[in-house]
Amino acid sequence: MWRRATLFLRVLEPPIHINASLSQTFTTGFPFHFQEKDGICPKPLITFVLGGPGSGKGTQCGKIVETFGFKHLSAGDLLRREMVSDSEYGSMIMNTIGEGRIVPSEVTVKLILREMESSDNHKFLIDGFPRSQENRIAFEQIIGAEPHMVLFFDCPEEEMVKRVLSRNQGRIDDNINTIKNRLQVFESLNLPVIDYYAKKGKLYRINAVGTVDEIFEHVRPVFEACEF
Ligand SMILES: Nc1ncnc2c1ncn2[C@@H]1O[C@H](COP(=O)(O)OP(=O)(O)O)[C@@H](O)[C@H]1O
Ligand SMILES: Nc1ccn([C@@H]2O[C@H](COP(=O)(O)OP(=O)(O)O)[C@@H](O)[C@H]2O)c(=O)n1
Ligand SMILES: [Mg+2]
């Protein structure tokens, strides 16, 4: 089924054939340099994965990667990795995540851009981003691309809190006080982004209650049916 979807992409958005000698400098029309494969430089295919803290974004992304071969970029994981590196942003990221606020978009978008540029996959699953309209606009301006579709894992608050508190990954923000802030930030900053994509007809709302496998059975047809 995925093969058929890929064929569709080629019809709708023909890949750009490039001269091998130009491959170091050629860009796809997007502001970033995209890796060529077999003389073909396909356009990036971007899916944003949204949902509140603990709604199961990361878990479902793992299954989408296994089944549909996307490159998974978790904005939270990229920020946590940057936080423990020698980065000048390390302490700012730690304080911001610890308080459940949103890191300035420029920092997050640059981390995403770096991963996209170094990937030899052109299908990206961007998890936990955009968390705000500011995130969304920065992505459009810096990367110059829009998502083909947006998944929203819709989960009741009590279930999200329960999952986050039993996640046990040693995260500084998985505690009851920070969760309260994260839920507020989700409602005030992330829901408007979700509404924005709903109005554009790009949003797929998934009921995030059930077992991991049951939820994935709602996700699977979205990818099988999409015409890219
Ligand atoms: N459908 C589910 N039912 C119960 N627990 C789940 C489910 N999906 C994920 N989890 C667990 O809940 C926690 C949060 O999931 P995660 O994928 O990290 O969510 P998010 O990335 O949205 O914060 C993890 O410990 C994960 O194993
Ligand atoms: N686009 C993003 C994503 C995450 N973050 C920060 O990173 C934290 C953890 O994000 P995450 O996506 O790993 O969290 P979960 O929703 O997976 O629990 C958020 O609460 C924010 O503080 C951000 O500032 N901007
Ligand atoms: Mg996550």
UniProtKB/TrEMBL annotation:
Binds 1 Mg(2+) ion per monomer. Signal peptide: none annotated. A ribonucleoside 5'-phosphate binds at R80, R101, I102, V103, G128, F129, P130, R131, R171, R182. Transmembrane segments: none annotated. SUPFAM superfamilies: P-loop containing nucleoside triphosphate hydrolases. It is found in: Cytoplasm; Nucleus. ATP binds at G54, S55, G56, K57, G58, T59, R167, G210. Its cofactor is Mg(2+). Its EC number is 2.7.4.14. GO terms for molecular function: ATP binding; nucleobase-containing compound kinase activity; phosphotransferase activity, phosphate group as acceptor. Keywords: ATP-binding, Cytoplasm, Kinase, Nucleotide-binding, Nucleus, Pyrimidine biosynthesis, Transferase. HAMAP family: Adenylate_kinase_Adk, Adenylate_kinase_UMP_CMP_kin. Belongs to the adenylate kinase family. UMP-CMP kinase subfamily. Consists of three domains, a large central CORE domain and two small peripheral domains, NMPbind and LID, which undergo movements during catalysis. The LID domain closes over the site of phosphoryl transfer upon ATP binding. Assembling and dissambling the active center during each catalytic cycle provides an effective means to prevent ATP hydrolysis. This is UMP-CMP kinase. It comes from Glycine max (Soybean). The lineage of its organism: Eukaryota, Viridiplantae, Streptophyta, Embryophyta, Tracheophyta.
